[in-house]
């Protein structure tokens, strides 16, 4: 019996060698794709169509797959709360008492804060709009820590938006497709977030490494951080707004400062995506566009080196008494009489008619741009060429 | 020369169905669920296929499917595109090169081989991440995924057991 029953059943090929060739080709393709990937750039165009397609399909599938687990969790939570209702009631009364005290304090501080801001004229940040989304898929490996949220370009989410849970910062959006957003977690090995220590105002970069507790890198200052210090976003660089809760500082087993993330203290099933667009949203773009800037003053380096163009405004010759009487210099060595070797680039000053600039055609014997007698002749510096007409012209040469 | 002793080895049986099962399990375990406050582990199910296919016999379709499935893993998990494709192909290549030493070994010994190949996959992923991002992933996190993947060996053994004798040309 042949291996296959069709017309190719008797076909004999060196399968081992062909499979090795197929393996090598696949390896080359895989490496090429890996080298061309620009995931870490977090640019819109780097998030390719293939990734968008996978996210678009994976979002509803993940929602369906996660639904039984969510329902089970809800049922277990309901049962648990029903059984422990008395204990929960006592605990919540205590929490309400504490929160009432904090609320009274918050009202007092808010009032004081408002008056001080009014006195100082501080301009506060505008409120940031946000979108609530449900997490439908989660990757937890050492090489990728990301989540898929079921809100995407249809609600105007773009790459770079910060993402929070109800407890703290989760990460930021690195990919958007219709109906789904890919959220890069703070724990991902590619994640870098500028943060600050709330107590000391010290700055650091929160660096993910695939583990549950990202590192505090580039920490500056002595005693900048202590165990349990609150870590917030610093807002440096404009990537994230300032003051979002991140977590608490702890000393890791490797001796480095790490952060226990606030967002990890419970399941992340719902997230808020802040529509934060850097600092540009603080400025009135229309007013900025209408601003008239002064003209840019430039000069052509070639003209400065080679010599004076006859169409340019020449400086007024200095008074004769200031020039030592040394007799007429050789004509060929007088810069003002030398015919131009190169036409200067058009500029406002270069467009001045020749008749208005008589100094450029002054005969050489009348030109006082000479060196003293016996002194070696030096090439005089050319004037600044592209000066605005309102500015005085520079002298062609200083008396030696 | 005829292969009268060989049985038909349909690609969909030993490549198609296992791939679909592995991808389904990957999607299933990506659900954002916590059990007793702990997050679920994230094993690399396709390691089962990469190891078992190379042990069963050389194949043209095997590396192609591994490439495509690896790219899907990278897209689905949001990692660098090509990381798992290259890692799985590396495992396939190393296993294929050493299959003469593996065939006929005891179950425990094969488990040891599988652990070694999983270490090769993790090491490849670690190196690629280091070169790509200039940052070292957490070794503890790598170890957790390694352990979660190693315990999948019974599935690989089942696959090998089922199809190892299907094509006697490569025994």
Number of strands of chain B: 2
Strand order of the largest sheet of chain B: 1-2
Fraction in helix of chain B:
55-70%
Largest sheet of chain A: 6 strands, antiparallel, barrel
Count of helix runs of chain A: 5
Order of helix and strand elements from N to C terminus of chain B: HEEHHHHHHH
Question: What's the topology here?
Answer:
The complex is a heterodimer of chains A (400) and B (171).
Chain A: H1 15-36, H2 49-83, H3 85-120, E1 130-140, E2 145-149, E3 162-164, E4 169-177, E5 180-185, E6 192-197, E7 203-207, E8 215-217, E9 230-233, E10 245-251, E11 257-261, E12 270-274, H4 285-290, H5 301-306
Antiparallel strand pairs in A: 1-2, 1-12, 2-5, 3-4, 3-12, 4-5, 6-7, 6-9, 7-8, 9-10, 10-11
Chain B: H1 11-29, E1 34-35, E2 38-39, H2 46-56, H3 61-77, H4 83-97, H5 99-102, H6 107-133, H7 139-150, H8 153-163
Helix pairs in contact in B: 1-2, 1-3, 2-3, 2-4, 2-8, 3-4, 4-6, 6-7
Task: Please provide a written account of the structure.
The complex is a heterodimer of chains A (400) and B (171). Chain A has 400 residues and is α+β, with helices and mostly antiparallel strands. Chain A is built from 5 helices and 12 strands. Chain A has helices at 15-36, 49-83, 85-120, 285-290, 301-306; strands spanning 130-140, 145-149, 162-164, 169-177, 180-185, 192-197, 203-207, 215-217, 230-233, 245-251, 257-261, 270-274. Chain A has a 6-stranded antiparallel beta barrel with strand order 1-2-5-4-3-12. The longest helix of chain A has 36 residues, at 85-120. Chain A is globular and about 85 Å long. In chain A, 30% of the residues are buried. Residues 310-400 of chain A have low confidence and may be disordered. Chain B has 171 residues and is mainly α. Chain B has one domain (11-170): Arp2/3 complex 21 kDa subunit ARPC3 (Orthogonal Bundle). Chain B contains 8 helices and 2 strands, in the order H-E-E-H-H-H-H-H-H-H. Chain B has helices at residues 11-29, 46-56, 61-77, 83-97, 99-102, 107-133, 139-150, 153-163, and strands spanning 34-35, 38-39. Chain B has a two-stranded antiparallel sheet with strand order 1-2. In chain B, strand 1 (34-35) and strand 2 (38-39) form a beta hairpin. In chain B, helix 6 packs antiparallel against helix 7 (139-150). Chain B is globular. The chains are: A alpha+beta (400), B mainly alpha (171). The interface between A and B is large, with 65 and 65 residues.
């Amino acid at each position: 019996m042949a291996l296959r029953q069709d017309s190719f059943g008797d076909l004999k090929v060196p399968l081992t060698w062909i499979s090795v060739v197929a393996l090598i080709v696949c390896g080359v393709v895989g490496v090429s794709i890996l080298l061309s990937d620009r995931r870490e750039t977090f640019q819109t165009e780097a998030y390719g169509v293939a990734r968008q397609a996978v996210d678009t399909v994976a979002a509803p599938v993940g929602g369906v797959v996660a639904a039984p687990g969510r329902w089970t969790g809800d049922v277990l939570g309901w049962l648990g709360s029903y059984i422990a209702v008395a204990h929960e009631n006592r605990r919540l009364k205590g929490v309400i008492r504490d929160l009432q005290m904090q609320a009274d304090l918050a009202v007092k501080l808010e009032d004081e804060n408002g008056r001080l801001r009014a006195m100082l004229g501080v301009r506060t940040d505008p409120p940031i709009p946000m979108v609530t989304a449900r997490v439908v898929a989660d990757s937890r490996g050492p090489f990728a820590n990301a989540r898929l949220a079921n809100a995407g370009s249809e609600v105007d989410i773009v790459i770079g938006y910060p993402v929070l849970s109800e407890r703290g910062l989760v990460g930021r959006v690195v990919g958007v497709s219709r109906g789904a957003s890919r959220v890069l977690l703070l724990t991902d090995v590619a994640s870098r977030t500028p943060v600050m220590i709330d107590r000391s105002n010290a700055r650091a970069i929160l660096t993910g490494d695939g583990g549950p507790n990202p590192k505090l890198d580039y920490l500056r200052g002595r005693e900048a951080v202590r165990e349990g210090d609150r870590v917030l976003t610093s807002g440096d660089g404009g990537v994230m707004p300032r003051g979002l809760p991140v977590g608490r500082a702890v000393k890791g087993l490797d001796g480095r400062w790490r952060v226990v993330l606030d967002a990890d203290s419970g399941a992340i099933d719902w997230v808020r995506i802040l529509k934060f667009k850097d600092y540009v949203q603080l400025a009135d773009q229309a007013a900025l566009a209408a601003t008239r800037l002064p003209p840019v003053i430039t000069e052509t380096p070639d003209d400065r080196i080679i010599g004076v163009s006859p169409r340019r405004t020449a400086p007024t010759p200095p008074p004769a008494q200031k020039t030592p009487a040394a007799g007429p210099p050789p004509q060929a060595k007088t810069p003002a009489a030398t015919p131009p070797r190169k036409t200067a680039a058009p500029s406002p000053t270069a467009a001045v008619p020749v008749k208005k600039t008589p100094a450029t055609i002054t005969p050489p014997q009348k030109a006082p741009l000479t060196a003293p007698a016996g002194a070696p002749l030096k090439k005089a510096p050319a004037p600044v060429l592209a000066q605005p007409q309102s500015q005085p012209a520079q002298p062609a040469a200083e008396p030696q | 020369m005829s292969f009268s002793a060989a049985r038909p080895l349909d690609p969909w049986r030993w490549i198609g169905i296992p791939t679909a099962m592995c991808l389904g399990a990957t999607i299933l375990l990506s659900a954002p669920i916590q059990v007793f406050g702990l997050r679920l582990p994230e094993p690399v199910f396709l390691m089962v296929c990469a190891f078992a296919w190379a042990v069963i016999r050389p194949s043209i379709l095997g590396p192609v499917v591994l490439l495509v499935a690896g790219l899907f893993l990278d897209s689905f998990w949001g990692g660098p595109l090509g990381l798992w494709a290259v890692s799985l192909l590396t495992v396939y290549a190393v296993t294929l090169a050493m299959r003469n030493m593996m065939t006929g070994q005891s179950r425990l010994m094969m488990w040891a081989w599988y652990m070694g190949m999983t270490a090769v996959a993790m090491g490849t992923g670690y190196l690629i991440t280091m070169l790509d991002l200039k940052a070292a992933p957490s070794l503890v996190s790598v170890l957790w995924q390694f352990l979660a993947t190693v315990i999948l060996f019974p599935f690989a053994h089942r696959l090998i057991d089922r199809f190892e004798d299907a094509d006697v040309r490569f025994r």
